[in-house]
Amino acid sequence: MNESQLGPRGRTASPVDDADRAVLALVTAGQLDALQELYDRYRTMAYSIALRITTDASLAEDVVQDAFLGVWRNASRYVEGRGSVKTWVLSIVHHRAVDAVRRRRPTTELPDREDVPPPALTLPDIWDDVAAGLDREQIASAMNELSDVQREAIELAYWGGLTQQEIAERTGAPLGTVKSRVRLGLLTLRRALGGDDGAPDGLAGEGSA
Amino acid sequence: MTEPRLSHEEAMDLAALYVLGALTPGEEAAVRDHLGTCSLSHAEIDELGGVVPALIEAELAETDLVEPPASLRDRIMAAAAADLDTGRTAPAQATAPRAAPVAFPSAAERTARAGRRRTSPFDWALRIAAVLAIVVSGAYALNVQAQLDQARQFDQAVAAVVQAGSQPNAKTVVLATQTGQRGAGIGAVQADGSVVLALRDLAATSGEQSYTAWVIVGNNPVNVGDFRVDASGIRSFTTKAGDTPVGAVIAVTLEAQAGNTAPAGPIVVAGQAAAPPPSSG
C-alpha cells in the first residue's frame, strides 16, 4: 500500500480518515444516513468521553446529542487539512462536555458555544498521523516529560475545563505563570510526541513569544 | 461581542489556553476576532493545537468505553430530521421518510426542496474527492486488488465528470441511494443538457434488465438513456442531450428492459441538479 492510494490530497491519510471524510461530505450534503453512519462510528468514544467528563449518564447523552447536532449543522465548516474527522468530532464532544460541567459551576461565565466548533482545529495533518499511531505508552511517556506543574495546568485546562483565572486560583500561581506553564507544557508534549525525526520546522519556537 | 481588541502579543499569549478550549467565551471570541483581522503569523497556534489529537487519544486511552443507550441514536436522528424540516440546506432526498416506498417526487415536493436549498458552501470538487475516498478506503479494507481495479475504473469515470463539471456554469448533481437500494454517484450537466455520470455500487444487471437514466422536470420524467452494469458495479455513462435546468431531478431506475418511456422500476439513485458554486473557477 504505497504509491497512488494516498488520500485525495496526496497526504498519507489513513483509510479510516478518508472514509470519515467521505461520510462527513455526505453529512454536509444533508444526508441523514450519513449522520447516522458517523454517529455509529464514534458513538462509543463520544459517549464515553462525555460520561467521563460529566460523570452523569443523562447529561452525557445530552452532550453527545448536542455535539452531533453541531456536527450536523456545521459539517460544512469542517475544513480538510484541519485534522482528522475523528479529532474534530471528539473535540466537539469534549468541549461540550466541559461546557456542561462549567454550567454547573455557578461562578463561571456561561459559555454559549452553540454552533461554534471548538477552537483547536487548525491541526496540521501530520499531528493526526502522529496521534493515530500513538499507543498508550507513548502518550503516557510524553505526559511524563511534563513537569508536575505543567501537567497540572494542562490537566486543569483541558480535562478540567477550568479557565486561566480558575487555574490560577486553584494552584495559587499568577496568571502569567499559568499561561506559560500551559504553553511550555504543550510544546514539551509536542516535542515528545513528534519523536526525534519527523518533527516539523518551527518546533523550537519557545523564544519567539 | 464587544470584547476589547487584543494586540498580537496578547492574543498569542492566550494561544495555548485557546487551543485547549480553556478560555472564557469572551476571551475566546477576542482571540478569534484577532485571528480574523491580524495579518501576522499565528503559526504557533497551529503548533500548539497539533497536540490536541494526542490529548484526545490520551483521553480515550484513559476512558472506559461505554456504549450509549440505543435510544440516543433515535433522539439524535429525530432532532437532525427536525432540523432539516426547519430549513437547513435540503439535500435531494434526505427528507424522504426512511421506510416509505420510493416514488418520483411530486412537483410540490421538488419546489419545496428547491426553495429550501441554499447555495452550498461546499465545494463540489470535494464531493468528488469524497466519493473517491470511499472507494480508496474500501480498497484498503477489503479485497485489495479487486477493489483497487474498481477504484481505478471509478477514478476514470469520475475524471470524465470532473472534465464536464469544470466547464463554465456546469451544473452538478450528487446521486444518493434511495431506501432499500444501493448505489451512489456524481454527475455534471454539460452545456447541451446531457449528464455525465459516474456511478458505483450498483447491482449488476442480468438478462434483459437495464438501468435507465431520467431527467425529471416538473412531473415529466424523460428517458435519457439506458445502460447495463457488470459485476464491478461501476459505470461511466453520458445521457442524451436535453433540457436539464437547475433543480431538475436526475434519477436512475432499474427496469425490466431498456427503452421504457415511463419509469416502471424502483429508483436506485437520484439527485438534484445544482447550480455551480458562485465563486468557482
3D structure, described in words:
The complex is a heterodimer of chains A (209) and B (281). Chain A is mostly helical. In chain A, 63% of the residues lie in helices and 0% in strands. Chain A has nine helices and no strands. In chain A, α2 packs across α4 and α8 crosses α9. The N terminus and C terminus of chain A are likely disordered. Chain B has 281 residues and is an alpha+beta fold. Chains A and B meet through α1, α2, α3, α4 and α5 of A and α1, α2, α3, α4 and α5 of B.
What's the short version?
The complex is a heterodimer of chains A (209) and B (281). Chain A is 63% helix and 0% strand.
Largest beta-sheet characterization of chain B: 8 strands, antiparallel
Major sheet description of chain A = none
Which percent range fits the helix content of chain A? 55-70%
Evaluate the radius of gyration of chain B: 23 Å
What's the N-to-C terminus distance of chain B? 35 Å
Q: Averaged pLDDT of chain A, please?
A: 74
Structural key phrases:
heterodimer; A: 209 residues; mainly alpha; 9 helices; 0% strand; B: 8-stranded antiparallel β-sheet; 8 strands; elongated
Please specify the SSE layout and strand pairing:
The complex is a heterodimer of chains A (209) and B (281).
Chain A: H1 15-28, H2 32-54, H3 57-74, H4 85-103, H5 125-132, H6 136-144, H7 148-159, H8 164-171, H9 175-194
Helix pairs in contact in A: 1-2, 2-3, 2-4, 3-4, 6-9, 7-9, 8-9
Chain B: H1 8-13, H2 15-19, H3 25-37, H4 43-49, H5 52-61, H6 70-85, H7 107-116, H8 124-141, H9 144-165, E1 171-177, E2 184-189, E3 195-200, E4 210-217, E5 220-227, E6 235-238, E7 249-255, E8 267-272
Antiparallel strand pairs in B: 1-2, 1-8, 2-3, 3-6, 4-5, 4-7, 7-8
Helix pairs in contact in B: 8-9
